[in-house]
Write a structure and sequence with these properties.
Length: 473
């Protein structure tokens, strides 16, 4: 792999993944404008963001199969072209149905991007340099979702909401053109058999659970559609998992969980992701609906933390390459626990500097959790299992974000002292504080788990994997 010129490949992958993740949150602040233009209710308009995450989550488990079936170059160009076509459909959409169609096509391409990028990075970089490489991935994961609402908030004030797609479209097209010339075939094709039943039950399973939990945050847990989708999702997922153990070439390899360290780091990564998404969802609701801040101020509160996370991710990657994940993850989870607890003391008069500084420290901690824990876990897997481990990691994070956000929002509304129209800000904020108590308990559990991460460095992991491969021969 040393003869490959890595830099152009890294730039193309990072750009593609950045655009894909940016689109998850890009429309968040544009929804009121879309509602007004297309004459939609709030619940209907919310689907432009929900459908993207839903299709994205459904595509990710299938990616390991796609990586082993198609060449790297063809898969990336197809995924990025699909994303660009979806973006174009959204940009010219005259009505809600066409807009939704565009978002589905966009998400089908975007869902392939993250697992593909992580797999390629793990294959082109030696194990002792993976931390730095994955730190760059961390920059994208942390920075893109936080940048989305700020950029779209400014753009929709100046231009029509379709301008968001017209800005993304040329960047996506340029990325496809550059990829045509610089992308190389890196992943190994094993041509696994297409198991149609697995793909169907995987789609129903992950789709049902993601939809159920996403909807529960809006309509409540007693809603018949929520109950039905969670039921269908759970049954389908059980069938899917059971079936994977009977197939010679499974769509998603659940045997990766036999590796204890991979399982621990995945759970920690999921807790970190819940901490990231939940705070970015709950704090703007608290600020705008209960504390009297503007949408612009809530965007400003998020921005310094997002920038800090972006800056720290590559630095943490270098620290990881030298010393391993153990101490980074322990310190990160300690900061996440402390900042979650600091948010249990919110009042209608909590100052903007307090909210911003605590959030920045929180994001600093999350930057020490996300990529170091992911890389430490994936470093334990053989080359054959890396695409499956990567797909599994991304799938579980989407599920964690969906379930965690819905759960914490439900706790926030259910524990508010009064949630009626006559409710005072103080009564509503009680629910926000309780949800952060739950988040504190969750990150404390992650902190305990972090002590079970072995203090090995990537160089030691490489030596161990080399020994294992030689003994297999």
């Amino acid at each position: 792999m040393e003869e490959i010129n890595k830099l152009p490949i890294v730039i193309v992958l990072i750009t593609g993944a950045f655009l894909a993740i940016l689109n998850q949150t890009l429309l968040a602040t544009a929804i009121p404008h879309i509602m007004e233009d297309l004459e939609l209710t709030e619940n209907t308009a919310q689907w432009v963001t929900t459908i993207f995450m839903l299709v994205n989550g459904i595509m990710i488990p299938i990616t390991a199969f796609l990586i082993e079936t198609f060449t790297t170059r063809r898969l990336f160009i197809t995924a990025m072209s699909t994303f660009a076509i979806g973006t174009f459909i959204c940009a010219i959409s005259p009505n809600f149905f066409i807009l939704m169609t565009g978002r589905v096509v966009q998400a089908a391409g975007a869902g392939i991007m993250m697992p593909l990028m992580m797999t390629i990075f793990l294959l082109i970089f030696p194990i002792e340099k993976r931390g730095t490489a994955m730190g760059t991935v961390g920059l994208v994961i942390g920075f893109a979702p936080a940048l989305g609402p700020v950029v779209s908030g400014w753009l929709v004030e100046q231009f029509p909401w379709r301008s968001l797609f017209y800005i993304v479209l040329p960047l996506a097209v340029i990325d496809v053109i550059v990829a045509y010339f610089v992308m190389k075939n890196i992943t190994k094709r094993t041509f696994p058999k297409v198991d149609i039943l697995s793909i169907i039950v995987s789609t129903l399973g992950f789709g049902g659970i993601l939809y159920g939990f996403s909807s529960a945050g809006n309509t409540g847990w007693s809603d018949s559609v929520v109950i039905l989708s969670l039921l269908v999702g759970t049954i389908s997922l059980v069938i899917f998992i059971t079936r994977q153990f009977t197939l010679a070439q499974p769509i998603l390899e659940f045997r990766v969980f036999k590796n204890k360290l991979f399982t621990i780091t995945m759970i920690i990564g999921m807790i970190g992701f819940i901490g990231l998404i939940a705070a970015e969802t709950i704090l703007p609701i608290y600020m705008q609906n209960m504390a009297g801040y503007s949408a612009f101020e809530s965007g400003l509160m998020i921005l310094p933390g997002a920038l800090l996370m972006g800056i720290m991710s590559p630095i943490n990657g270098r620290i990881f390459d030298r010393f391993g994940a153990r101490y980074l993850v322990i310190i990160g989870l300690l900061l996440l626990t402390i900042t979650s607890f600091l948010y249990t003391r919110l009042t209608p008069d909590t100052s903007l500097p307090y909210l911003t500084i605590v959030f920045a420290i929180r994001m600093f901690g999350i930057s020490m959790i996300m990529m170091p824990s992911t890389t430490a876990g994936l470093n334990q897997l053989s080359h054959r299992l890396i695409p499956h481990g990567s797909a599994m990691t991304n799938t579980m994070r989407q599920v964690a974000a969906s379930i965690g956000t819905a759960l914490l929002i439900t706790i926030m509304t259910a524990t508010a002292l009064n949630s009626g129209e006559s409710a005072s800000a103080l009564e509503q904020i009680h629910g926000v504080n309780i949800s952060f108590y739950v988040a504190t308990g969750l990150s404390l559990f992650g902190l305990v788990l972090a002590f079970f991460i072995k203090g090995t460095t990537p160089a030691e992991d490489r030596a161990k994997l080399t020994t294992e491969r030689e003994s297999e021969r």
